[in-house]
Design goal:
elongated; two-stranded antiparallel sheet; single chain; alpha+beta; 13 strands; about 25% helix; 6 helices; about 250 residues
Length: about 250
């Protein structure tokens, strides 16, 4: 499911107090990785996606505050996509929110537990408040990058036709390997990508089919941190890349 795009801030902010002022938000990368390597979170790929039939006009700061998602006096930043295509992004309390008529996307500014729990709280509250909204799926996404992948990871991108492509005068700019996995009854779409600069990307998409807002809320409740930890466990046990605190 879709991840965050490129946004630029605009000179607009909203406060639940009478004195609005612009807000600058610090971005933290939080957890890193090591076993001789520097696997780092790519937070633009850490998203919670709810495809459905949404009314974007509902999601004003005032509406969010009335449902306890924005505290009195808390600053809210607005950013617009650089291409001017797509919905604006609201950022508050360390999470971001974008909504168009077909999907709701939540993002985070840190991989820490409290930010993921905040994402989950926003999503479950919205789903409870708008329980009649048709929601066809839930996607939970995590992404990491390794600038200097070990040979064991590079071997995942060895393909039988690489030599033939080179003989034909073709240069491989990027290679992706995608697997659809059954993870204890959950669907996991795991994509490994080797980019032109030699960097390896690990992209996890946990997919849940749902038929209502209530079903999506039940599938999500209490699971976001657990799913991140499951992705970390796969990186550690399958690819021998170990999590440490930075």
């Amino acid at each position: 499911m879709g991840n965050c795009g490129v946004f630029r801030p605009v000179s607009f902010s909203w406060r639940a107090s009478p004195s609005p002022r612009r807000c600058a938000i610090d971005v933290s990368t939080g957890l890193g990785w090591r076993r001789g390597y520097a696997l780092t979170p790519r937070l633009e790929g850490w998203t919670l996606v709810l495809p459905g039939f949404w009314n974007p006009r509902i999601f004003s700061p005032a509406w969010l505050q009335a449902r306890g998602l924005i505290e009195q006096g808390q600053q809210v930043a607005l950013a617009l996509p650089v291409t001017a295509i797509g919905p604006p992004q609201l950022s508050f309390g360390g999470v971001s929110l974008r909504v168009d008529s077909q999907k709701l996307i939540l993002g985070t500014e840190s991989p820490e537990d409290d930010r993921l729990q905040r994402m989950e709280q926003v999503a479950t509250t919205v789903l409870a408040q708008l329980s009649h909204t048709p929601v066809g799926a839930l996607g939970v996404n995590f992404q990491w990058a390794e600038q200097n992948p070990p040979q064991s990871v590079l071997a995942c991108f060895d393909t039988a036709d690489a030599g033939d492509l080179a003989d034909a005068g073709l240069q491989i700019r990027e290679t992706s390997v995608t697997r659809q996995l059954d993870d204890d009854g959950r669907m996991l779409n795991l994509t490994l990508k080797l980019e032109a600069d030699g960097q390896a990307i690990f992209d996890f998409n946990f997919h849940f089919a749902t038929n209502s807002a209530d079903a999506a809320r039940e599938a999500l409740a209490g699971r976001l941190v657990m799913l991140r930890d499951r992705a970390k466990n796969i990186l550690e046990t399958v690819y021998e890349l170990e999590a440490v605190a930075q």
